[in-house]
Amino acid sequence: MIREDDISALDGQLLDELTTIVSAAGAAILATRAGPCATWTKADQSPVTAADHAAQAAILDGLARVLPDVAVVSEEAALPAGLSDLAETFILVDPLDGTREFIAGRGEFTVNVAIIVQGRPRLGIVAAPAQGLIWRGIAGKGAERLRLPAGRPAGAAEERMAVRTRKAPGSGLIAVASRSHLDPQTEAFLTRLPVGERLACGSAVKFCQVAEGAADVYPRLSTTCEWDVAAGHAVLVAAGGTVMTAAGGPLNYGRAGANFRVPNFVAWGDPSAPAKLGL
Q: How many Å apart are CA 99 and CA 87, to the nearest integer?
């Protein structure tokens, strides 16, 4: 069993090992573009492709070597028995976040891996394989963006840049919202804010845009899943931001009894912004 103290002692090494695993998953996704990529529809009517499964296999294989005793909750894998009583440390994985963007030929899809400790994201990695970029961070230790071609190990990064959120302006906020899942509640929330520019994007890239100061707020007031959110949440917090529920409370993870659903969230680059805006 890995405890939080163990993760703290291994932070640098573990972050690089997990980054290399995520990079391999990105390469597996891109390899499927060499030919026709089989696509299916799941029971919830969301799409899944051979690329999702290829990335899943690469991640699970890597995690079995690096963190063999830690439970993994993943979108495309059967959940292990006994997850109604999750350990205090577990891993959340989305092997291909933004499947609709992938199918449409856009490069906004990501690979997401997060370590959860006592219900909170401790470490997160978000890779955008088509862009050759990886964002990663550890709570309390900062976040960074790597330029790393998919399939290369973490140590082969061509560029490393620390990322940090920006202070929200009093007006002219930059908001990011889902390209494929914009709902009426989120639209109504955005109309209450002094937004000067709105960006549409798929996948967890939106969290990363807020983390690096390219945007100020990312709301989603419709249901999503923990594996869609946790890695981006970790990166954003490491960069100085915050993620909360629409009611302003903490967003916790490990809700097996709720099928790992997240009812809503709002991600802010500037944690003081909600109070300044009277929300």
A: 29
Name the pLDDT band for 1 (thresholds 50, 70, 90).
very low
pTM attached to this predicted model: 0.93
Query: pLDDT of 165-222, one tens digit each?
Result: 999 998 899 999 988 777 899 999 999 999 999 999 988 999 999 999 999 999 999 9
DSSP result, the chain? ---HHHHHHHHHHHHHHHHHHHHHHHHHHHHGGGS---EEE-TTS-EEEHHHHHHHHHHHHHHHHHSTTSEEEETTSPPPTTGGG--SEEEEEEEEE-HHHHHTT-S--EEEEEEEETTEEEEEEEEEGGGTEEEEEETTTEEEEEE--TTS-GGG-SEEEEE---PPPSS-EEEEEESS---HHHHHHHHTS-EEEEEEE-TTHHHHHHHTTS-SEEEE-S-EEHHHHHHHHHHHHHTT-EEE-TTS-B-----GGGTTEE--EEEESSTTHHHHTT-
Q: How confident is the model at residue 75 (pLDDT cuts 50, 70, 90)?
A: confident
Whether the pLDDT of residue 100 is over 90: the answer is: no
